[in-house]
Amino acid sequence: MIKYLLLGFLVVLLYYVWRRPRSNTPRAPGQTAPSPLPQSMVECAHCGVHMPANEALLGQRPTGADYFCSEDHRRAGPRAH
């Protein structure tokens, strides 16, 4: 009985290995997938939460670049620390 369970497990394992998704882009042996470029992080001027610069909202002050995490915090303005 146990040999049939092991045989069934082996068949299922081989099926999943054979069906797993494969990459369509050919790579040289030893070459790894490219890693994403690092993004600069900024701090919300109101609450201090850090976020990627491309997701932050820019403040309205002409004197400097204030970043905010949400529209509500941008309207509230920078908090005095």
Would you mind describing this structure in some detail?
This protein is α+β, with helices and mostly antiparallel strands and 81 residues long. The chain has a domain of 42 residues. It is 30% helix and 12% strand. The strands form 2 sheets. The protein has a two-stranded antiparallel ribbon. Strands 3-4 form a two-stranded antiparallel ribbon. The radius of gyration is 26 Å and the shape is elongated. The N and C termini lie far apart (71 Å).
**Rounded radius of gyration (Å):** 26 Å
**Beta-strand content bin:** 5-15%
Q: What is the number of beta strands?
A: 4
Instruction: List the total number of helices.
Output: 2
Structural class: alpha+beta
List the helices and strands and how they pair.
Layout lengths: L1 H18 L21 E3 L6 E3 L4 E2 L8 E2 L2 H6 L5
Antiparallel strand pairs: 1-2, 3-4
